[in-house]
Amino acid sequence: MSPTTTGGPARTVGPTHRTWSGAHRWTPAREVRPASADEVAAAVAAAAGEGLRVRAIGAGHSFSPVAVTDGVQLDLERMSGLTHVDHATGRVRVLAGTPLHQLGPLLGAHGLALANMGDIDRQSVGGALATSTHGTGLGFTGYAGMVTGLRLATADGALRWVDTEHEPELFEAARVSLGALGVIVEAELRCVPAFLLEAREQAEPLADVVPPSWSAAAPRTTSSSPGSPARTKQNTRLPLGAGVDPVGAFRSTVMDGILANGVYALMCRAGGQAPRIVPALNRVSAWGVDQRRYRDVSHRVFVADRSVRFREMEYALPLESFEEAFAGLQAVTRDLARRGVLPSFPVEVRAAAADDVWLSTAHGRDSVYIAVHRWHREDPTAYFRACEEVFAGLGGRPHWGKEHTRDAAWAAGAYPRFADFQAVRDAVDPGRVFTNDHLDRVFGA
Questions:
Q1: Which domains, ranges and CATH numbers included, belong to the chain?
Q2: Per the record, where are the segments of Low complexity compositional bias (predicted)?
């Protein structure tokens, strides 16, 4: 791709994009790679003047087509780094294109950390906020709950700083918006003093961890493939003075790189060719996982190495609905198994605290998250559709960045502040500059 203009934001014509899973591919009419907030605003104004739609993209890690566009693609890769650190309040300002895996070390250099993180850190800050991305632990909200201010480039070409005192309605709506209100160029986040995490990873009989014992003090992630034991990861917070005991380089290379990803990729291929051997492969995978305990700075422990590509659907359910939802999921997998559909990827279970963010998946309720996956070369339709019927029937809300089939009529009943969100959207983007076919479905045209 070669620039077609000089000066200002770098532009390219016709680059082809795809999501990380490979499920969605598209070619925008034009791509712009701004390096400043002013360049973002100028690119938005120019696109709106030409009647083109605009979608921002960060790492492209969303499983849904949220970033797809036939208009102008704003690639925020050059918008990276911290812009301000307030040590007294723990608040930092960070450019929206900053990858989460870079944000951890940047904060650590100032003695700060994010209170919680998800298990994947490839996303950009802007993308993680837009899609209600979260970690695990009932004492902690998702990323959007950490936001105290945002700088937006809106459809009129303006740059607006919004928080609880400046355009508070726009602020509340923009904390999770799928990019439908404007382009987030900068976010202010509430951070905490840096800390260590001690992780304990092990395989356990599924009956011993379902139903789980939810704990705010020691968050747990559980994953299990149908018919196999559970793999659990429990994190305990410790002060920096406790000292680190990280996973050694050789152990990390062998267990995470070769076994967890390389061998698992071969197992997925084998299961795809011979579905009947999937249950046996799942059992071997679960019991063969490394049993280990390690301690390191938080951003190195929260995340896991995921190089095997997959497609994913995840639903947030009321905490009290977990047992019914999990039983329904088990019934789904048994029914599909009888028809020869045997998912090789594990189911992942996490929990997060309620928040007040209008379109957060945890809005107003402590939530349990159940995620189902299929290897990227397998058709997930039957599996995802059956699981979605169970989850949606129990009041579940899909992760905005993952696969689902919900629409605006559903969202109006699932989110108490959905009408307020729509009113803000009508006010700041009446011409629907920031939309695509996917947003037209989930929010309405």
A1: 10-75 (3.30.43.10), 82-193 (3.30.465.10)
A2: 211-232
